[in-house]
Amino acid sequence: MKFLSDQGNTSAAVIGMGYVGSTVAAVLAGEGVDVVGIDVNPALVAALEQRRCWFSEPGLPELLYSGLDSGRLRVTTDYDLVSGVDVVIIAVSTPVRDTELVDVPLRTACTELAGHLREGQLVILKSTVPPGVSRNLVAPLLEGGGLKVGEDFGLAFCPERLSEGQALHELRTFPIAIGGWCPDSVAAAGAFWRRTIGAEIISCASMESAEMVKLASNWWIDHNIAMANELATLCAVLDVDVLEVISATNTMRKGTGNVNILLPSVGVGGSCLTKDPWMVWRAARDRDVELDTIPVAREVNDSMPGYTVDLIVEELARFGKKLEEAKIAVLGVAFKNNTGDLRATPALPIVTGLQQGGAEVAIFDPLADSGEVKKTFGLAPVETAREALSGADCIAVLARHDEFDDIDFVALRESVAPSCVIIDGRAYYSRETIGRFRRHGFAYRGIGR
Ligand SMILES: NC(=O)c1ccc[n+]([C@@H]2O[C@H](COP(=O)([O-])OP(=O)(O)OC[C@H]3O[C@@H](n4cnc5c(N)ncnc54)[C@H](O)[C@@H]3O)[C@@H](O)[C@H]2O)c1
């Protein structure tokens, strides 16, 4: 094979050891690949060397530490080690500002890499990028070191489609889409993923096609959730449980699968769904194509934190309580369930809205780093759920982590206010659980429930 040797153990460098890079590096090392993880942030590298993982992803710290302990995984800030590996995977951040890609991390990484590439290597871009970036930005920058793409080294775009909370499982099982500079690049990338993760491969006709696979995925998710959120706001006024509607609707076959309406919630956050739709919208606009559904879906999803604050105010008013007199226990401030990631979390505008209305807010989130919570919310989190709930007029579950299974609101009934409302922002409590809350004197409202 032109770009990947058939002999011996495969080795890889992962450029950018953030959330995605750490996951990819840990999984590859777990599969026996010799991996070097390279990041420009010395604090991140030092933390990993001291067996401190910054990302609260189930199973990730253990996998990283076992890779580091076995020597299969090494971490460094030094690009020199790149020349010794077979495959270089780029997973640096690709943020968007005002709909435009901020390409500085990608440019810096590619420029640095160019000086370290050697003949026969394969470069795989995993960072999410607008269509055309692999060909028009990454390839020329990598060629800056004198080697020619397609001749001296291979280049492929393989979008990362994992989501936080189930990243390890998804990385090991999701089919991998590959778009390559040339057939040899596609063949080498396919061989690499089959040999290491054993993944099913989907070959795309071009790098642009593979770039669009990622963008279409997140466009669909954001759009689908916007529909679920609007459905929820309608169900709320019809006194219909949106979850009942969704689960019954989703039994209908359509196309190659079932209708699959996702779940409504207090809003869409995280580093991908809040930016990727804008990336594709901007790519379309630059080519004189207007994508109307993207701004609409973004607007709907961005309106959900305000909707949640209004819901809390409305429920408190039923008990004659004003927001400025209320204590709100906020459980879970991460952008979704079972992650500690606070990036673009919808909990932030909710907490801000509650505080601006004069409420006293107590935050509890066992997965989020307490220093990060303090920095993001300007409020130190409390250490226990009991502390947060003490005297609360409202328990707002904005992200429901598995750790919350142990918190029994009913058992803590005496410590909350006599009239206390549970706001179910993303817990999706069962009918039985809601019935139990109500029997013990709690009011309950969910998004569309
Ligand atoms: N987080 C997710 O759930 C997810 C899922 C799929 C795809 N993605 C995409 O994957 C990419 C990475 O996302 P992430 O969440 O891991 O971001 P992140 O911010 O957690 O990690 C990016 C890392 O790259 C490092 N970096 C920046 N410039 C560098 C350089 N020149 N050389 C080496 N390291 C450099 C940063 O220090 C950081 O540690 C983005 O394009 C994102 O859109 C993310």
> N- to C-terminal separation?
57 Å
Q: Which of globular, elongated, flat, extended, rod-shaped describes the shape?
A: elongated
Oligomeric state, counting identical vs distinct chains: single chain
**What is the second-level CATH architecture of the largest domain?**
3-Layer(aba) Sandwich
Total of DSSP H or I helical runs spanning 4+ residues: 16
Q: What about the largest sheet?
A: 8 strands, mixed
Low-confidence parts, pLDDT < 50 over ≥5 residues? Answer: none
Give an overview of the whole structure.
The termini are far apart. The protein is α/β, with parallel strands linked by helices and 449 residues long. It is elongated. The chain has 16 helices and 17 strands. Helix 8 (207-238) crosses helix 10 (276-285). Strands 3-2-1-4-7-8-9-10 form an eight-stranded mixed β-sheet, with helices on both faces. The longest helix has 32 residues, at 207-238. The protein folds into two domains: 11-206, NAD(P)-binding Rossmann-like Domain (Rossmann fold); 302-446, Rossmann fold, CATH 3.40.50.720. Nicotinamide-adenine-dinucleotide is lined by residues 15-21, 38-41, 44, 91-94, 105, 108-109, 127-128, 160, 162-164, 271-272.
